[in-house]
Amino acid sequence: KNIVILISGRGSNMEAIVRARIAGAQIKAVLANRADAAGLTFAREHGIETRVVDHRHYDSRETFDAALQAQIDQFAPDLVVLAGFMRILSAGFTRHYEGRMLNIHPSLLPAFTGLHTHRRAIEAGCKLAGCTVHFVTAELDHGPIVAQAAVPVLPDDDETSLAARVLAQEHRLYPQVIGWFAADRLVWRDGRVYVHGDVG
Ligand code: GRF
């Protein structure tokens, strides 16, 4: 399966996916909406094609999304992976990739959509936090959930310590889910997500 990964910054999830050497998955390209996204360096060093589509050069979300889509589709992806891609996507764009675009969100959805998830989980007194991989739909952070990982929130946690604990799980969970997709084990049908075979 051909995979295109979209990032905006550090790119540690992208890095975990590349390092996982997922059977049946070929990382065709890494795209960013900022030329200074740190993860682009790792991708280039690993011989992966990179592209930058800078949102500031477009006067609307629709024109940016159209340019992004044109770049992505040059690589004929079976799967588009959002990995810390910090742009809200238009309905047309999400529809184009329906069933073939995943996102990772650093909370146990449906709790804490949007930003500052760890701070909000601590403020709410949650005893568990975590991350969610979901199919992308038009509504931000609301697509069908594929998999989640939970971690404890410890009494002395701050945003940084909790984020680090969750991120370690993100780096494990995202490659695992992409592995399911690459092996044709992931099915989204009638509003439900199924993983065929043993979950491993
Ligand atoms: C991750 O926590 C991801 O869940 C969120 O943004 C962060 C991106 O980190 N959407 P990285 O760029 O993958 O290091």
From TrEMBL:
Catalytic activity annotation: N(1)-(5-phospho-beta-D-ribosyl)glycinamide + (6R)-10-formyltetrahydrofolate = N(2)-formyl-N(1)-(5-phospho-beta-D-ribosyl)glycinamide + (6S)-5,6,7,8-tetrahydrofolate + H(+)
Keywords for the protein's UniProt record, in alphabetical order: Purine biosynthesis, Transferase
Alphabetized Pfam families for the sequence: Formyl_trans_N
Keyword flag Transferase: yes
Active-site residues per Swiss-Prot or TrEMBL entry: H105 (proton donor)
Enzyme Commission designation: 2.1.2.2
Transferase in keyword set: yes
Domain Formyl transferase N-terminal, residue spans: 1-178
Involved pathway(s): Purine metabolism; IMP biosynthesis via de novo pathway; N(2)-formyl-N(1)-(5-phospho-D-ribosyl)glycinamide from N(1)-(5-phospho-D-ribosyl)glycinamide (10-formyl THF route): step 1/1
GO terms under biological process: 'de novo' IMP biosynthetic process
GO CC terms, sorted: cytosol
Binding-site residues, (6R)-10-formyltetrahydrofolate: R61, M86, R87, I88, L89, N103
TM regions (residue ranges): none
InterPro entries: Formyl_transf_N, Formyl_transf_N_sf, GART, GART_AS
Residue numbers marked as site, Raises pKa of active site His: D141
PANTHER family: PHOSPHORIBOSYLGLYCINAMIDE FORMYLTRANSFERASE (PTHR43369)
Family named by the database record: Belongs to the GART family.
Role played: Catalyzes the transfer of a formyl group from 10-formyltetrahydrofolate to 5-phospho-ribosyl-glycinamide (GAR), producing 5-phospho-ribosyl-N-formylglycinamide (FGAR) and tetrahydrofolate.
NCBIfam families listed in its UniProt record: PurN
The protein's name: Phosphoribosylglycinamide formyltransferase
